[in-house]
Amino acid sequence: MLAAHHLLKEVIASLRTVTAPAVADPYPKSQAYMAAVILEFIARQVEERSDSSKAKEHVLDDLFSDLRLLITDKVPSSKDPDQEARLCRLIEWLYTEKDHLGPEAFAAANQKVRTALRQLLDQELKIAGTKE
Amino acid sequence: MAEPTQDKIISYLYSKLPQAKDLSLSQFVQTAVGWSHEIYVFDARWKENGQEITRGFCLRKDPGSGLLRNLSDLKEQYRVLQALEPTSAPTPKVYWYEEDPSLLGGPFFIMEKVAGEATNPWSKVGKQYYAEAAKRGKLPRSFIEALASLHNLDWRAAGLDFIGVPGPGADFALREVAKWESLIQQSLRKPEPVLTEVLMWLKANAPQTRRLAFVHGAYRTGNLMIKDDLISAIIDWELQVIGDPMYDVAYVLSDLNREGSPLLSCVVEREFFIDTYQQLTGLTIDFDACRYYEILYMMRSTAFWLSASGLFAEGKSKDLRLARTTYSVPVVLNMAAKALGF
Questions:
Q1: Are B332 and B192 in a shared domain?
Q2: A124 touches chain B (CB under 8 A)
Q3: Could you tell me if B219 and B118 are in contact, meaning their C-beta atoms sit under 8 angstroms apart?
């Protein structure tokens, strides 16, 4: 049996060099090329997904700890097991409570959140990012 | 939903052209563009009072599961195009609108097939086409003139206020944010904290609208029919609003629409656009508002891609282009994050 990435590589090559060029109608032709593009993404996703999830968990754990230190007991507690959903609620809360927190506390917390968001985004871009 | 067959279209045309005899279709093509609606372009030929008539038509049909879901209304598009017909804005003439799904499987309208091409600017060939047209000089000016024709329009006199008029202050920007947030809520399949931060920033920083205008909402190459280096028609009427003209200007100025090209919308130099637009409209470009709207467009693009990939994931579309868009979400969010400084 072929390894998954090898199989995908072959399917992609076949779509690009055999299937798509043989199709005259522009719509199915573009579909064949698009299938090749999607399979390239999937190939990267298969290799990197588990590392990415662990890295994200680490980033979110650190962020929630840092925020507890920064704005102590003001951070609303959440039992949501989905850490990213919890972060969404926290961001909404920060903007809603901006006036109560005061500009300095808001800016400091928002800065921490944005730093974490950048790290989360970088994990997603490992899969979705275009080659530069 | 079933595709409208040529036979059904012929039957429909006979009902609208009662004098027609021996009606036939040719050059029948479903275009690969148009993610929200099915678009069919064809020529119809018939005999009428002893004369042979050939006319090009374009049929736009609701597929029942379009990219914009319930944000895009074919009837509104039809009425907007009707209202624009007597104005100086270059638009296709519309003929008939039908809501009855028994005719072709969904609501649709038929308009004229406009001469010219809406060349896709994202392909290598498209970029080259626009770069060469830019050097010749006519198209960049025509691009700005067509936009100015919309922004200079007396939209109340044209009867376009039926699409909704925002209130004073930041109401327009907040309405747009709310509109796209509703699409996100319909489409979101997992939490997107970066998107939450972008949305909250947009709500907290909405600019005041100084002057209301008729705004296309997606003014760029690819949504413009071009013939002989002139805009023959502005197409893709799905996102028009009465709102801040800077909303369109920001879209033109945005990096979203040039993918590496040094030219705005792949066709016009930045300074030339700014000078000519201001001269033709008498407006001063508000770059702070444009920066805000550019970030709003990034949020909007994210909403598009979430909707598109959601439709594929929900089994409502088999179009692989929609599946591919799931990988565009972090890329656009990255642009928004950078614009916000993180």
A1: yes
A2: yes
A3: no
A36: domain range? 4-128
d(CA B291, CA B253): 9
Task: Please name the member of A31, A85, A113 whose beta carbon is closest to the beta carbon of B191.
Answer: A85
Residues B288, B290: Cα–Cα separation, whole Å: 5
Q: Is residue B47 part of a domain?
A: yes
Number of domains in chain B: 2
Chain B residues inside the 8 Å CB shell of A31: 319-321
- Domain end position, chosen among B112, B145, B173: B112
ipTM of the complex: 0.82
Chain B residues with CB-CB distance to A82 below 8 A = 191
Contact B191 A88 (CB under 8 A): yes
Question: Regarding beta strands B224-227 and B213-215, do their DSSP bridges make them parallel or antiparallel, or are they unpaired?
Answer: unpaired
| Residue bearing tokens 């064809």 | B42
Q: State whether B324 and A128 contact (CB < 8 Å).
A: no
pTM here?
Answer: 0.88
Same domain, B231 and B326: yes
Q: Could B324 and A37 be called an inter-chain contact, meaning their C-beta atoms sit closer than 8 Å?
A: yes
Residue B75, domain extent: 6-10+19-112
- Inter-CA distances, B316 with B237, B308, B323, Å: 23, 10, 11
pLDDT tens for chain A, 132 residues: list them. 356 677 788 788 888 988 899 899 999 999 999 999 999 988 888 766 677 888 999 999 999 989 888 886 667 777 778 899 999 999 999 999 999 999 999 999 999 999 999 999 999 898 887 644
